[in-house]
Specification:
Rossmann fold; nine-stranded mixed β-sheet; UDP-N-acetylmuramoyl-L-alanine:D-glutamate ligase; 17 helices; single chain; about 500 residues
């Protein structure tokens, strides 16, 4: 799929996104708690050659099947989660985080015989330094599996079932067989993210979504992500053995390949994006694919939505839930996908801060984009993990610069600036100063040119009061929009015709 969807195709996909709302999706599998400790590394320990991390914010994220459920809920569908957690603090945290995400945990069973799976990652300057795991991967007790299935069956009929197998023991043979049987009775699809080497163990499911490494392991040979013919050939025996509708193989930066039981194959290339973290990308694919199919989408349409959502997910640090609007703007493939209202950008900024990403911010009219603007933005981008740019509206520019300005309307200025790789988000403000925007975004670094004194930078007190700082960066000499406009006016020459032509 190209980065830009055609108008008709995009209309159908947008309609499919809307139809995801209200669908009932069961997610059954291994539940995990992802914990992130963010900190600063300023020295090496005198006790051993390891970095000393000055611990800061601690963040909790849903992992495994719970992360799949979070993405389903983000699409507006009803996510009903089944799994097992221990009688411990991590189990309490998973249930609380699910509640906050709007996930129904009626199928989550507390099992005193096992620890809740927990993964603790320690990061310094956005770099993962160490990961600690707590888990018990033995098969779930028969009584726990029975209680899980009974709880799921007591609810409403599902439109689709997702089995998220992380090989931690919840999807035992008995549990797997019973959930597939229940789905068969309800005549709904079962989408499986498999971890077993024997893919035939998922007999009765509809679709499997292995990544290339998992399919290679099952096939007993290394598969090249560029050799689609060999990948298709490796998948077909498992489709037949497990009586599947097909297998969707995720190929990381090479996209995804669907191999159908009828022999059809459909490859969708990945949407090119800068990759920050691949954690949870497979969960995103499963959630979006399954929910789109439940909403009546074709395999190809569901793949396109899942591919787009996964591309957005890997651009963020840690596992994230992609909302329908993000998918919609990404489908357009235009720079405008980076243009946000203040309310939308405020929500994005809150998520960036929660993930420990430093926000750099600058503002201005940015009328008639020139080399001085580019230099400022490139330097500003170096001071944070994301760069937010706020530009004055047309009315605001007129009040500041007078009649005849801006030369370029605000919506066009925003689109041009969003097309720059160093800019992550653009918003338009109507006031004379960006005070309200700064109040909502709360950047870590406020960036202006060295033609300012720090004491004169508008919004400095807001940023510093919130623990941030002001940075002044060098400017390109003799470059300003006002100077360019004046130069154009002085050098404007109306060329007089030298001869008549047939064109008149």
């Amino acid at each position: 799929m190209s980065g830009v969807a055609g108008a008709d195709e995009r209309s159908h996909l947008l309609d499919l996104i809307d139809r995801c709302a209200g669908r009932e999706v069961w997610i059954v599998g291994d539940l995990m708690l992802d914990e992130y400790v963010q900190g600063a590394v300023e020295r090496v320990s005198p006790e051993a050659p390891v970095p000393v991390v000055r611990a800061g914010a601690v963040q909790y994220r849903l992992g495994g099947a719970a992360n799949v459920a979070r993405q389903v809920a983000a699409l507006g569908a009803r996510a009903v989660l089944g799994g097992a957690v221990g009688e411990d603090e991590a189990g309490d945290r998973i249930i609380e985080e699910c509640r906050r995400a709007g996930i129904d945990t009626c199928g989550v069973v507390r099992d005193a015989s096992r620890r809740t799976t927990r993964k603790l990652r320690v990061l310094g300057q956005q770099q993962q330094l160490v990961r600690l795991d707590w888990e018990d991967a033995h098969s779930c007790d028969v009584a726990v599996a029975r209680a899980l299935c009974e709880r799921m069956a007591s609810g409403s009929r599902p439109d689709v079932v997702i089995l998220s197998d992380y090989a931690k023991g919840v999807l035992s043979d008995a549990c797997l067989a019973e959930v597939i049987r229940m789905a068969s009775v309800e005549r709904c699809r079962v989408i499986v993210d498999p971890k077993r080497k024997d893919l035939a163990a998922y007999r009765g499911a509809s679709l499997l979504t292995p990544n290339l490494a998992e399919l290679s392991q099952a096939a007993g040979r290394r598969l090249d992500p560029r050799d689609l013919e060999s990948i298709g050939a490796a998948a077909r025996p498992f489709i037949e053995a497990a009586e599947l509708e097909g297998i969707l193989v995720t190929l990381s930066e090479h996209g995804m390949l669907f191999v159908g039981a009828d022999g059809a194959e459909n490859h969708i290339p990945a949407v090119p994006r800068a990759i920050a973290d691949v954690t949870g990308a497979g969960d995103t694919v499963d959630a979006v694919l399954a929910t789109a199919l439940a909403a009546g989408g074709s395999i190809e349409q569901a793949m396109k939505l899942a591919n787009t959502a996964a591309g957005l997910a890997v651009a963020e640090v840690g596992s994230v839930a992609i909302d329908p609007r993000q998918i919609a703007v990404a489908l357009a493939g235009a720079p405008g996908a980076k243009v946000f209202t203040l309310e939308e950008l405020s929500a994005r900024a809150a998520e960036w801060r929660r993930l420990g990403r430093r926000i750099a911010f600058t503002n201005g009219c940015f009328d008639l984009l020139h080399v001085g603007h580019i230099a400022l933005l490139q330097e500003a981008a170096k001071l944070g993990d994301v760069l937010v740019l706020a530009i004055n509206s047309d009315a605001s520019v007129r009040r500041l610069k007078g009649a005849g300005r801006p030369i370029i309307p605000a919506t066009e200025r925003a689109t041009l600036l969003a097309a720059l790789g160093c800019v992550d988000a653009v918003t338009i403000f109507d006031e004379d100063t960006p005070h309200e925007t700064l109040r909502k975004i709360r950047p870590h670094v406020l960036v202006k040119g060295q033609d300012y004194d720090v004491a004169d930078v508008v919004g400095r007190e807001l940023v510093e009061a919130d623990g941030g700082r002001v940075e002044l960066v060098p400017l390109v000499d003799s470059r300003s929009t006002s100077a360019i406009v004046e130069q154009i006016r002085r050098s404007s020459i109306v060329a007089e015709p030298t001869s008549h032509s047939a064109a008149g």
